[in-house]
Amino acid sequence: MTELDRRTLLRAGLVAGAGVAGGALLGGAGANAAPAWRPAGRPVLTHGVQSGDVTADSALVWTRADRPGRMLVEVSRRPDFRGARQLRGPVLGPSGDFTGKVRLRGLPDAERLHYRVRVESLERHGVVSEPLTGSLTTAPGRHRRRDVSFVWTGDIVGQGWGIDPAYGGLSIFRAMRETRPDFYLCSGDTVYADGPLVESVTLPDGRIWRNLVTPEKSKVAETLTEYRGQFAYNLLDAHLREFAAAVPQINQWDDHEVLNNWYPGEILDDPRYTEQRVDVLAARASQAFHEWLPVPDDGPLYRRIPYGPLLDVFVLDMRTHKDPNDGNTYADPKRGLLGREQREWLIRELKRSTATWKVIANDLPIGVVVPDGPGAQEGVAQGDPGTPLGRELEFAEVLRATHRARVTGMVFLTADVHYSAAHHYDPSRAAVGDFTPFWEFVSGPAHAGAFGPNALDGTFGPQAVFVHAPPHANTSPAEGFQHFGEVSIDGESAALTVHLRDRDGASLWNTTLPAP
């Protein structure tokens, strides 16, 4: 932790503290290789700047340099940085692949702030990189009611569809930025570490999709360098870099950060991998995830992010504690994919929350059947519409406990299944009646093959009110069916409006939920 002179920062209108966390990437050969040590010249920031997990008084700021150096961050209310004060952050070194994060503290709530990042050479004091700038909006304080808006999606660079500038690159990030959201929720599959890219793919109409390919994206990721290269690849896209500099993120992970449908303790039987122990792969992937994204390095991945009196965001981790993918029809309440501690935390925090809306970011949907080959299930549901079995038992417990505690305003947001949908759950249609009706909204992929729709499991009474799915499996981004969702909460009425949008930002469907 780097401490700053509070009196000095008060003169600038801000109070901040710098938290030091690890960072990292690159290594190996090719475009993503760690650069050779160059004592001459100025350091260079290689992959832009990002911010994340913004609250009413704090935020994480991230960058990466091309060599060892000291991270320096300025923060100001003004875009010209007049009166800004500088924070000395961590030393960016090879153990973290030259990435780093600074925690800004003591920020004013509900304000647009500007930050500027440089890296200072360790060899030549005073020699610094060209600056990169970003901006963020802090959350409203606990008692400040104002409009709140955010976007969400998931599934980035999957099924072999990489960056092709001729088809707009990752242009969905431009469309999301144009909605001017307060923050962005990534519902997992932030990268596809198990999805190698080839240079060209022939589309159904004969056109050629030409991928930008790096060495780390040419095979399945196994080494730490290769996992780091997945995140570095996505940041080669200008739309994503511009979005990341302008919009704070909330990130969760799903399966493709490691490999498809993984669970702890799994041993692979896959000739593409020389390392067959999934726990080893997951540890490397987790390190890269924490190095390359503006996420906290302390505590579990599941967390609550307060956003004023109208919104609490509950970020779930449905992977770290996941049980094996079997038929998912067991009756053992000790099994599941949340784990006992996370399940108890979720129930406890939902009961404690005084926010009007409790948005639960679930990286696996509740009622959508997601098979993992014949006879095995990847998700919560398994297709048996009867009383809860398997992983459904966990969610039955959460829904029952919150219903009995009269918790209101619960909304679930997810991606994962590569199409867009609105599902309404109601006990009048369900095999179990002890829960309060709720909505689950699905939006994705951001840039991957489109699939679906999947079957719904009737246990919790879901009804597909809206579905937008492709005509065939693995529909390319060139053919459309890429999606994001937008949520806006009115500061006066507290009504919550959801738009399900396409790649260009056009609204495909919307609904407004009155404040409970």
From TrEMBL:
In this chain the PhoD-like phosphatase metallophosphatase domain maps to 156-499
Q: Which InterPro entries does this UniProt record tie to the protein?
A: Metallo-depent_PP-like, PhoD-like_MPP, PhoD-like_sf, PhoD_N, Phospholipid_Metab_Enz, TAT_signal
Which Gene3D superfamilies does the record cross-reference, listed alphabetically?
Answer: PhoD-like phosphatase, Purple acid phosphatase-like, N-terminal
Residues forming the Phospholipase D N-terminal domain are 47-135
- A Pfam family found in this protein is PhoD_N
What PANTHER family does the database record attribute to this sequence?
PHOD-LIKE PHOSPHATASE METALLOPHOSPHATASE DOMAIN-CONTAINING PROTEIN, PHOSPHATASE, PUTATIVE (AFU_ORTHOLOGUE AFUA_6G08710)-RELATED
Q: What is this protein called?
A: Alkaline phosphatase
